[in-house]
Amino acid sequence: MGLRIDGRNLAQLRPVKIQRHYLDYAEGSALIEMGKTRVICAVSVEKGVPPFLMNQGTGWLTAEYAMLPRATETRSPRESATGKVKGRTHEVQRLIGRSLRAAMDLEAIGERTLKVDCDVIQADGGTRTAAITGAYVALCDAVSTMRRREMIRENPIIGQVAAVSVGLVDGKTLLDLCYREDAAADVDMNVVMTDDGRII
């Protein structure tokens, strides 16, 4: 296998580092680093569920995703300043939420909502896959907090979930693309998988 921009083999992940309990106040949090990409993930526990789930005895999990203006090589305007959330942001938020819900028994948390915030502080490709993997770690710690506070009795985590990008660059299939590879890719995709082999 040939070497890539950063010296990796074609099927080699970038170095991954996860720092748990990164924030003092969130029920669960983590800073994940995948190469130069860094994402802060936090999970908050709130009472109540969206109207479509009220009085059904189940909980909900939803995600929000944002990128700091200077997470990239050139500054990007804050979406809050423009007054409009981009379609890409909605897509990423739905992907994160759907991925994490695949690892949860939401009935086990009662009528509560788990709100997941993923904030990219430095972007070098793979921000959404880093967000999913980091948010899963933060979610596990949030559940531990809920059990410690006797908010729930049973563990609602029913599996593990992680994500990685794959792309085709100059006819070669690459794993875990950095930004320069992603920008040059003819095809790229994000793969989210549970520990029992389900692809989300």
Topology record:
Layout: E1 16-20, E2 28-34, E3 37-47, E4 60-67, H1 79-82, H2 87-101, E5 112-122, H3 127-148, E6 161-169, E7 172-175, H4 179-184, E8 187-194
Parallel strand pairs: 4-5
Antiparallel strand pairs: 1-2, 2-3, 3-5, 6-7, 6-8
Helix pairs in contact: 2-3
- Taken in chain order, the helices and strands follow as EEEEHHEHEEHE
The CATH architecture can be given as 2-Layer Sandwich
Kindly state the percentage of residues in helix. Answer: 10-25%
The number of distinct helices, counting runs of at least 4 residues, comes to 4
Number of domains: 1
Order of strands, widest sheet: 1-2-3-5-4
Shape: globular
Report the β-strand fraction as a percent range: 25-35%
- Rg: 18 Å
Architecture overview:
With 200 residues, the protein is of the alpha+beta class. The protein contains 4 helices and 8 strands, in the order ββββααβαββαβ. It has a single domain, classed as Ribosomal Protein S5, domain 2 (2-Layer Sandwich), CATH 3.30.230.70. Strand 6 and strand 7 form a beta hairpin. Helix 2 packs across helix 3. The radius of gyration is 18 Å and the shape is globular. The mean pLDDT is 95.
